[in-house]
Amino acid sequence: xxxxxxxxxxxxxxxxxxxxxxxxxxxxxxxxxxxxxxxxxxxxxxxxxxxxxxxxxxxxxxxxxxxxxxxxxxxxxxxxxxxxxxxxxxxxxxxxxxxxxxxxxxxxxxxxxxxxxxxxxxxxxxxxxxxxxxxxxxxxxxxxxxxxxxxxxxxxxxxxxxxxxxxxxxxxxxxxxxxxxxxxxxxxxxxxxxxxxxxxxxxxxxxxxxxxxxxxxxxxxxxxxxxxxxxxxxxxxxxxxxxxxxxxxxxxxxxxxxxxxx
Length: 262
Hints:
The protein is mainly alpha-helical.
């Protein structure tokens, strides 16, 4: 690597940098140092009592994995069971935002179409960006068809045009080791915090998920952090120990000046 000089003291950082390059999220040594500092801060947080604030995400993910089955006869009822959490419903139900309600309603009206939409979204043979974009497009089509058949309806929103966030939750719950919830502005803020000079000004879904995997690879070397995390997961029955939600939780903490109310 031309122009890069490392002392023995910097060799560990070179290993970190190599991990970053492996996942195609190019980070400088200075950025890697900032990430390691954030890891240390996060590790201290995990030792505190309030570190369980967002463990309900692991609970929701485990519940989804246990109940989601597109082969079930009553699709709407299955989706209702799969999208449950005893602690909070705010991921899919808050003021002026009801994607779960619309999903169940349309699953009862158009079960075959909704099944095809999820099959396409979860098809790992296709690029994640194209799948998420099509999922939003299919929702537009469904709503248009419904409004055509029911011209007097007041329904004018399907809530799946939220910057890909709810769609990313479906992916995250279906593939715990591959995806995390997508929040574009938080993505931008984190990159600013680590000193990136390449801040996306428009959605960059592939890069976001590559960054998540890069951070997870780097985090493998943080033994105390991972031990503290596994300790807190013991309170969540069925939690996936290798879930990338750990990286989302890390992003939430590292950008905690940006609220997350779910």
